[in-house]
Design brief:
Blueprint: E1 5-7, H1 28-34, H2 52-58, E2 66-72, E3 83-92, E4 97-103, E5 109-116, E6 119-124, E7 127-129, E8 136-143, E9 146-155, E10 158-165, E11 171-177, E12 181-187, E13 224-225, E14 233-234, E15 242-245, H3 247-253, H4 260-267, E16 292-295, E17 298-299, E18 318-325, E19 338-344, E20 352-363, E21 373-384, E22 387-398, E23 417-429, E24 434-447, E25 451-453, E26 468-470, E27 475-476, E28 481-496, E29 499-513, E30 517-518, H5 520-523, E31 533-552, E32 557-577, H6 579-585, E33 587-588, E34 590-614, E35 619-634, E36 637-638, E37 651-652, E38 655-671, E39 676-687, E40 712-724, E41 728-747, E42 753-771, E43 777-790, E44 800-801, E45 811-821, E46 824-833, H7 838-841, E47 852-863, E48 866-873, E49 903-911
Length: about 900
């Protein structure tokens, strides 16, 4: 039996159509194609916060004007039961379109319907949307007269259906079908301003003020990214390789690891394998060169080369991550390997929303109190009028770690740590076109352990696996910690004299004290000028500004232009520790400081212009240039005591230097078919080498013209193909880059790393494949192979293999995911790391990379109003050394740590 009810509400709307990030059928024929599926898979796509259509969809989640409240009863379920809607189907009709909310059996559904401007809003009060790959469904331009349809979980027991008409709110008839579920039969209202006559079932409502309808742009089933070109752009229009890690993917991966380098290593082709037991990015380059790390556009890299910039924010505070592979002339500021832009959590559409996560983690092989770590996270977000906000807090503790053989892993960046993170964000919509947003984030990572890495392994012939040695608590005057904080103020104007303007001001500060190092046993009798016990530290701050203006010339051509400025102050001393107090009372008292890298000031100014030109619907061009000038200044300093073991630190004269250059980029995309596109790209990068090379200064070092500090310019060539056939997505890219003066790393037999400047070339192939054979199954894989050589000076050989610090071995990832039962999902993922011995054979380094394979298992199930998530890392309990440990030779043999054994993580997540 069908209950036929007619609701008609009219309002006027002007909607500027921009492509969104969800499934978007563009014609009745395409809708019919989709309707053959039981439910449309919801891809994990990125919706840009500045997308006009997305912004319109986010408005009015709590309607103020209730038109009518209707109940449809069935004796098959009580009114309080929560009905699961497992699919959303669209079926074209002669009147318009049917939206079907599929349920397993006839159920009692309670709903109310209202309208706001041209948006029809219906809340189903006792139901929950359970789709296989996400929490919401969206379709753009599904029928003439309808701009968009969105079905979401408004809260834990309410589904909201929103329909935006192009001119006015559509008419709707609501049915309940015993065979299909709840049906919304939509008829678009074509004539702007026309008010239909009320019917007995639909009381008359006040019409809304009329607005001029806007032209609709074609919607695509593709991601929207901003990092590649600094403005919103469809991924299919980007002429280079870009990887987007969504919020859903981040949440999935944090079930097995909360270490950001591991998440990136698992998800990003061209990026080094997961570090697995460290938060440092020492062996994680992007296509063989260092990337620029940004958080909301705020530069995290320091010119002192500390490799901790990825350990700057907790994953719980991240909305998505966009990775541009290859140098960027658009961003500059040292982006010779590419750009990793971490975008923080966005405010909610809800009036108020909370999220609570509690969890624990332990080694399954050593199920004891020492191995337990805990997670507690709380988030609060809201939207009130023209103000929105978000506050995210997280606490994570890590206990002791054990490898697959049950041996305790020595302290590293993660073992025996406590991490706190606070993200606060508030935004104000000054009017329809202007927005002001302020973000502040502070991250604090503190370690405290009774163990050290046993130095006695250095006396054993051959390379050994590091082992822990208990020495008791150490009373530290300067605790081992890392504190990273930034403040970011952003102003945007959508139409200032015909241009879109974005202005950003930011401040960033990093303070790091690493673990205590005792090198007395490494060198025997330590000369008095070399600190036997010390801590490395960093105190770096920077402030900067970004101004970018997008000026359209026509519908097919637009110019992006602007300026970036950054100023950095940095100091990197050794804290010298009193050996007597250390040996007698386990007190780490400071005697003074020594130079690791001398204090310096650096400033960077970049002026850029980028033109995008759509020659036709199939052929797109983009190109531009950037002028970059970089200057630094160093006062007189004493050299690093480890730069010359035979002589006391030399007195080095300070100085200043300034370099500049112009870099270019040019790219093209050709859409062979709607599913397949080809792209080609040439881009240059420009950078001053890391100023930690000042730590290699000896007597006679000249700051102004030493070859170690000469700038580097990289030329990168890339070709690729992308394909998207609905249930299958694939990409393939090949690259080659070259610089005349690369930053080539050489590991000496002592284990210390030095730089050798000379020509450098890198090349490789990257591929991805994802397939959703049904609405319950998905599987995929990625492949990375890259290599590189350098022409080292004064060796009499033209080209030698680059160190494995620069070129990582082959990496293969794969996953299979299944919705075993409604609301219960399971995922098995694999990581394969290959062997690499080229640099060892060429005597560039003293170690070979031995490959390994790991499996992780992830499961999540809906329980009550929340979700229980289980993760098992290293499912097969393999004993191996991750790549990030295998470079430990010489005195660094004490950091050749095995990976963690089989590890269980369990947490419960609830939103309310």
């Amino acid at each position: 039996m069908k209950l036929h009810l007619l609701l008609s509400c009219v309002a006027l709307l002007s909607v500027g159509m921009m492509p969104t990030a969800m499934a978007s059928p563009k014609s009745p024929e395409e809708v019919a194609k989709y309707s053959h599926q039981r439910s449309l898979p919801v891809a994990a796509k990125v919706r840009s916060p500045q997308n006009p259509l997305a912004a319109r969809l986010r408005e009015v989640k709590q309607p103020h004007k209730t038109v009518q409240s209707l109940s449809q009863a069935s004796p098959l379920a009580p009114a309080s039961a929560i009905v699961q809607v497992k699919g959303v189907r669209l079926i074209p009709t002669d009147k318009g379109l049917e939206v079907i909310l599929e349920t397993a059996a006839p159920q009692k559904l309670e709903f109310s319907t209202t309208s706001e401007e041209a948006t029809l809003i219906s809340n189903v009060a006792n139901a929950q949307l359970v789709l296989p790959e996400g929490k919401e469904f969206q379709a753009d331009n599904p029928a003439e007269g309808i701009s968009a349809i969105r079905v979401v979980n408004l809260n834990d027991n309410t589904i909201q259906v929103r329909v935006i008409g192009t001119a006015a709110v559509p008419k709707v008839e609501v049915f309940e079908s015993a065979n299909e579920g709840l049906i919304f039969s939509l008829t678009p209202t074509a004539q702007t301003g026309q008010v239909p006559a009320p019917t007995p079932e639909t009381p008359e409502t006040q019409p809304q003020p009329a607005e001029k309808p806007a032209a609709q742009a074609e919607a695509e089933e593709l991601d929207i990214v901003v990092t590649a070109s600094r403005v919103e752009e469809l991924l299919q229009n980007v002429p280079r390789s870009v990887t987007t890690i969504t919020r859903e993917q981040i949440e999935t991966q944090t079930s097995v690891t909360r270490n950001l380098p591991d998440i990136l290593g698992q998800a990003v082709p061209g990026f080094g394998p997961p570090t697995q037991n460290r938060r440092t990015g020492r062996l994680q380059t992007l296509r063989g060169r260092p990337p620029l790390i940004l958080i909301d556009g705020v530069v995290q890299n320091t010119s002192a080369g500390f490799d901790r910039q990825l350990n700057a924010i907790d994953p719980s505070a991240i909305e998505r991550i966009e990775v541009v592979r290859g140098p960027s002339a658009v961003y500059g500021q040292g982006a010779t390997g590419g750009v990793i832009n971490i975008i923080t959590r966005q405010p909610t559409d809800e009036r108020i929303q909370s999220e609570l996560v509690v969890g624990a983690r332990t080694d399954l092989g050593e199920l004891q109190g020492e191995s337990f770590g805990y997670t507690l996270k709380y988030g609060l977000a809201g939207n009130e009028g023209n103000v929105d906000y978000r506050i995210n807090t997280s606490l994570e503790t890590n206990g002791s770690w054990f490898d697959a053989e049950g041996n305790r892993i020595p302290p590293n960046d993660i073992v025996d740590t406590e991490t706190l993170n606070l993200l606060a964000k508030v935004g104000i919509d000054l009017d329809e076109q202007q927005r002001l947003e302020l973000t502040y984030d502070i991250y604090n990572d503190r370690s405290d352990s009774e163990f050290i890495s046993d130095p006695s392994i250095l006396d054993t012939p051959g390379l050994q696996t590091a082992r822990a040695l208990r020495v008791g608590e150490i009373d530290q005057e300067e605790p081992s910690r890392q504190t990273n904080q930034f403040a970011n103020l952003r102003y945007s104007h959508e139409n200032l004299l015909g241009s879109q303007v974005d202005l950003q001001l930011y401040y960033q500060d990093s303070q790091i004290n690493q673990e205590i190092q005792d090198v007395r046993t490494f060198f025997g009798d330590v000369p008095p000028f070399i600190p036997g016990i010390f801590q490395t530290s960093l105190d770096s701050s920077k402030w900067g500004a970004r101004l970018q203006i997008q000026t359209p010339f026509s519908e097919s051509a637009r110019l992006l232009w602007g300026a970036d400025y950054l100023k950095e102050d940095s100091d990197q001393p050794f804290f010298v520790i009193d050996p007597v107090a250390f040996d007698e009372r386990r007190e780490a008292n400071l005697l003074g400081t020594a130079t690791q890298v001398p204090p310096f000031e650096l400033d960077n100014l970049g002026l850029f212009a980028q033109l995008q030109w759509d020659l036709s619907e199939k052929w797109l061009l983009s190109g531009g240039l950037r002028y970059e000038t970089i200057g630094f200044e160093v006062d007189d300093f004493l050299a690093n005591p480890f730069s010359d073991f035979d002589n006391p630190p030399a007195s080095v004269a300070g100085g200043s230097n300034r370099v500049d250059d112009i870099v270019f980029n040019f790219g093209s995309v050709y859409k062979v078919t709607p599913e397949i596109s080809l792209f080609a790209n040439f881009a240059q990068g420009f950078a001053v080498p890391s100023l930690d090379y000042l730590g290699q200064a000896t007597a006679g070092f000249n700051v102004e013209d030493d070859a170690l500090l000469e700038p580097e310019k990289v030329n990168n060539y890339e070709i690729g193909v992308r394909g998207d056939w609905g249930s299958v997505q694939t990409s393939l890219a090949a690259f080659y880059n070259h610089s005349d003066l690369g930053q080539n790393l050489v590991i000496a037999p002592s284990g210390l790393t030095n730089a050798a400047r000379g020509p450098q070339r890198n090349y490789g192939v990257e591929a991805t494949l994802d397939w959703q054979p049904s609405d319950r199954w998905s599987l995929g894989s990625s492949f990375t192979w890259n290599e590189g050589e350098a022409d080292f000076p004064d060796d009499g050989i033209d080209w030698l293999a680059l160190s494995s610090l620069d070129v990582q071995p082959l990496k293969l990832t794969a996953y299979v995911e299944n919705e075993t039962l409604p609301g219960w999902r399971n995922r098995l993922q694999m990581l394969v790391v290959g062997n690499r011995d080229r640099a060892f054979d060429d005597e560039v380094e003293e170690f070979e990379i031995d490959g390994y394979t790991t499996l992780d298992f992830i499961s999540s199930v809906q329980i009550g109003q929340g979700k229980l998530e289980l993760g098992i890392e290293n499912l097969l309990d393999n004993q191996y050394l991750p790549v990030s440990s295998q470079d430990g030779t010489g005195i660094r043999e004490v950091v050749r740590e095995a990976a963690r054994g089989r590890t269980l993580s369990l947490r419960y997540r609830i939103e309310f």
